Amino acid sequence: MRQRDLRAIYGRAFFAEQIDGSARSAKIVVPLVMQMVRDVRSVVDVGCGAGTWLARFKEAGVQRGLGFDGGAAAEHDQIEIEPEEFRVANPERDIDPGGLLRMTAWLASPGANPQGIFSR
After folding, report:
1. Helix, strand or coil, per DSSP, at residue 34
2. Sheet containing 42-46: which strands, arranged edge to edge?
3. What's the CA gap between 57 and 4, in Å, rounded?
């Protein structure tokens, strides 16, 4: 699918509805995950959309979050997380195994700078 076609699908109205549905789901699921998986300090969401799930994890006490998506929500100023927690990424082009290892190291290292995690 071409980029222009994706922009027509993922517009402001799409994210308004997606954010609402994700928020309702995350309100139920995030507390359950936090009970089952103790000491959660970081969460990565690939395909995060507007970052709604990450925002709920942060509200539940998770210290660090990092969301990856195509960027349409950011273009519409609809992201739910801090801009530094959001990365525009195309998994087919931007994410390589070395990048995943660097991301893992960043999440495990308090104070590390996430800039350039996926640069090749």
Report:
1. helix
2. 42-46, 64-69, 86-88
3. 32
Contact 45, 51 (CB under 8 A): yes
Whole-prediction pTM: 0.69
**Two tokens, residue 41:** 């300090």
- CATH code for residues 3-108: 3.40.50.150
Q: CA-to-CA distance for 61 and 70, rounded, in angstroms?
A: 26
Strands 64-69 and 86-88: parallel
Per-residue pLDDT of the chain (120 residues; tens, 9 = 90+): 555 565 666 666 776 677 788 888 999 999 999 998 888 888 888 888 889 999 999 999 999 898 888 777 666 577 888 988 988 877 667 666 666 666 666 555 555 544 544 443
